[in-house]
Amino acid sequence: MSMPDNRLERRQALHEDRRARYERMVEIRALENKVQDLFDEGLVHGTTHLCLGQEAVAVGVAAAARVSDTVTCTYRGHGVALALGLTPVDLLGEILGREIGSIGGIGGSMHLCEPDVGLLPTFAIVGAGIPVAAGAALTAQVRGTDDAALAVFGDGSTNIGAFHEALNLASIWNLPVVFVCENNQYGEYSRIDLTTPVDDIAVRAQAYNMPSEVVDGQDPDNAADAVAAALMRARTGGGPTLIEMKTYRYAGHSRADTAPYRPEGEFERWYEKDPIVNYGRQLVDEGLLSGDDLDAVKTLVDESIAAAVETVLASPAPPMAAMFDNVLAP
Amino acid sequence: MNQAISAAIADEMRADPDVIVLGEDVAVAEGPFKTSAGLLDEFGPLRVRDTPISEMGFLGAAVGAAATGLRPVVEIMFVEFLGVALDQLSTEGAKFHYLSGGRVTVPLTIRASVGAGLGFGTQHSQTLESWVMGTPGLKLAVASGPASAYGLMRAAIRDDNPIVVLEPRRLYAQREDVTTGPEGVIPLGIARQVVDGDDATIVALGSTVGTTAQAEAAASWSADVIDLQSLQPWDRDTVYESVARTGRLVTVEENPLFGGWGADIVAAVAADLFGELKAPPLRITAPDVPVPFGKELEERYMPSSDYINEQVTGLLHTGRVPSPWWEAEKGSP
Description:
Low-confidence stretches of chain B: none
CATH architecture of the largest domain in chain B: 3-Layer(aba) Sandwich
Number of domains of chain B: 2
Shape of chain B: globular
CATH superfamily of chain A: Thiamin diphosphate (ThDP)-binding fold, Pyr/PP domains
Number of helices of chain B: 11
Distance between the termini of chain B: 43 Å
CATH architecture of chain A: 3-Layer(aba) Sandwich
Strand content of chain A: 5-15%
Low-confidence stretches of chain A: none
CATH topology of the largest domain in chain B: Rossmann fold
Mean pLDDT of chain A: 96
Largest sheet of chain A: 5 strands, parallel
Strand order of the largest sheet of chain B: 2-1-3-4-6-5-10
CATH superfamily of the largest domain in chain B: Thiamin diphosphate (ThDP)-binding fold, Pyr/PP domains
CATH class of chain A: Alpha Beta
Oligomer: heterodimer
Shape of chain A: globular
Largest sheet of chain B: 7 strands, mixed
Strand content of chain B: 15-25%
Structural class of chain B: alpha/beta
Number of domains of chain A: 1
Number of helices of chain A: 12
Number of strands of chain A: 7
Largest interface: A-B, 45 and 48 residues
Number of strands of chain B: 12
CATH class of the largest domain in chain B: Alpha Beta
Radius of gyration of chain B: 20 Å
């Protein structure tokens, strides 16, 4: 077992090998835990938004999409970025503000980008990436390619106008776009039922005459299959789809939030559906991996994250002149 | 001017199949100000699209389309409507190049009608350069007539950055001969000297260019009248050269006094050419009020050629900045 370090190979692995999907989920969790540790140690400034518990959605989306599809995602985007193919060094470098980071240490935790695997600059404004994905789909439609676009956003985004305007536009123009809502049950510090008058976000697609589906977002294969079916519809002229992935945010909203507002027992109930524990068990049951293999994956991932941290901490901050680069295109 | 805008967009659409046009009523109706005349017929519904009344949605989509290879030209019918979509312009589109390490470009042109003079009332009569000019990552140009609109529009569509091109509403019906083709293109960031004179440098923008030239023609003094054309970036060289010669700077702005674009021009000139100035810089603006509707009030709101003449005459005679008209109008508190 080996883990590729090339972004395109990392992406390819998710298409071909379900063991790679398991490894990637383990990697996302290990990286997120490491990010929390680094913050707690005071090694980085600013804030961070962890996607612990949501690893299967990220891996499912990346496994279904191809690199010529465009993806927009949120500031809770470490998982999606790693799944799409960015490396732990890309992410940790950016989060720690080093030149080696995804965009040279100019962005921080909320701002990642990698056009080679289809990732537009990630969005730190709730809902903003949703119409942008519709626009990427417009490019495919105008140019007559069979590429598609995917917007990955949270349940909290579905109360802002950008969500509704994007769905409306995508529907009337029949755009090849898949709207993937990660319903992690919380918008910032507020539980979804306090802010949102529907139980399933998916029903909101009806208002735009758009097909939609509620999917168990804790299983990466389920997630990938649902996204793949929607992408197929998009590529063949069938228009947009809204997919609601039911998932759960293990961490608080951002680094300082310990989520004291969480009802007793809720975390434990969701942890029974933990994507990594369950998918690992499933692969063992199917004979694809042994119990020892699961341990080996964990060891390998931990080593790779530790090595990435070491590389990043040894690398320089961006030079002062870097802030003046890329304000405008030449 | 509306014909010049349609012609500029058509010329760019012929040159580049990635240029598309989006906006409310731009296709079938050819735009409420007829600024996209003939485009749907020539280029078809894939490239020329009517949108829902949904600026956040379609401006966001234009950002996404630009970031993935198209060159959208988006019409915001009245610049005020940009308010509901400002996030997509200022915080998303303007930042993509920076937040991608220079790997994503956003060649997006946003056209919007601006200004008073047509009786559209308080919510459809502002100029609002100030919403755009302070955001690094955006360019901003303002048309002052048909030739200017044609040339700036073509340059904007070719540029690889998000650009707002503002079009004074009351100039849409203005007609003049326009040089089309490559010779008609006006590079961004370059000012145009409209009138040559000696006593002052008067910097104007958009609707105030014509008014200022009129004022100068009727005045007892003479001045360089400069059409700034682009605000972001603005042409320091042309302004500085002129002020170094005339020793006096005047800006003429159709916007409230506080926070208007002229303040930045004045600040730069005052800092860099302090020793060359024979008089304090003068800003001729509208008052700090919403645009009123009543015809006489609306006309008074905008700097007229008579008022420009009075103000500059006052500056030249006294060496001091004259009080604006509204000080007398408002009376004592």
